[in-house]
Specification:
By secondary structure, this protein is mainly alpha-helical. The mean pLDDT is about 80. Helices cover about 80% and strands about 0% of the residues. It is elongated.
């Protein structure tokens, strides 16, 4: 999954969870999105490493 696709999914989820998303300033949205993107990317990498370790067995 590409980084842009992941970012798009995250943004959709944030729009649903924050009712005032449209009223928020871009400077407050950007760090929130970046923080969640990093968490998801890290978990994705951990899953990929785990899958590769299983396939090598």
């Amino acid at each position: 999954m590409h980084r842009k696709n992941i970012r798009q999914i995250i943004t959709k989820q944030l729009k649903k969870s924050f009712s005032n998303w449209k009223k928020m300033i871009r400077k407050s949205k950007k760090p929130l999105t970046k923080e969640i993107l990093i968490e998801i990317a890290d978990s994705h990498v951990i899953i990929m490493v785990y899958i590769e370790s299983l396939s090598s067995i």
